[in-house]
Design a protein that fits this description.
Blueprint: E1 9-11, E2 18-20, H1 23-36, H2 46-53, H3 57-63, H4 67-82, H5 90-103, H6 105-112, H7 117-139, H8 147-170, H9 177-200
Antiparallel strand pairs: 1-2
Helix pairs in contact: 1-2, 1-6, 4-7, 5-6, 5-7, 5-9, 7-8, 8-9
Amino acid sequence: MCYNTRKHFVYFGEGGLLLSRPKTQRAIMNSFVKLLNLYPLDKITVKDIVSDCGISRNTFYYHYQDIYDLLGATFSSVTETVLSENVTTWQEGLMACTRFALENRRAVYHIYHSANRDQLERCLSQVAGESMEKLIRYLTQGLSVSDEDIGYLTLFYKHAIVGILLEWLENDMKADVEHVISRMAVLLEGNLRLSLERIAVQ
């Protein structure tokens, strides 16, 4: 899977989500996610990471303040990649996130069950929010709908989508997430257009 051959990519696991980052940061993130697939977040040390990727501690601290800074940067990279110009629908964005979760199941669960779960939720929330706003603005073409109402609809559907994905994580990712997202698409987009048409005539 490759979104843009002109970028530098990070491979998570055996072939998960690809992220745009310079070479050294790519190596650090690869090692970090590799270790997250083996150990809980609070058991991983900077020493473990630099040993795995073959860099010095000074090099690590040149790029990141600590492991939690690295975790935030990793999720920021996931979000940036999913929201890149190559992901054209909200379904594609969510599927990229869920593929990453499935290919790095233990890493995601180690984060989900840590004190830093909020970073995972923020990543999902940003992807869902920005993707839904793009869809809603597309569906408003030819309709007179205010930015305020677009904001309310985006907020509502963002929380609905994130809630469903968090329940999927809570239930050990057992459901067929591709089927779930495809059904969500059918239900959401039809209802969205009707909601926008009602708003436009008020």
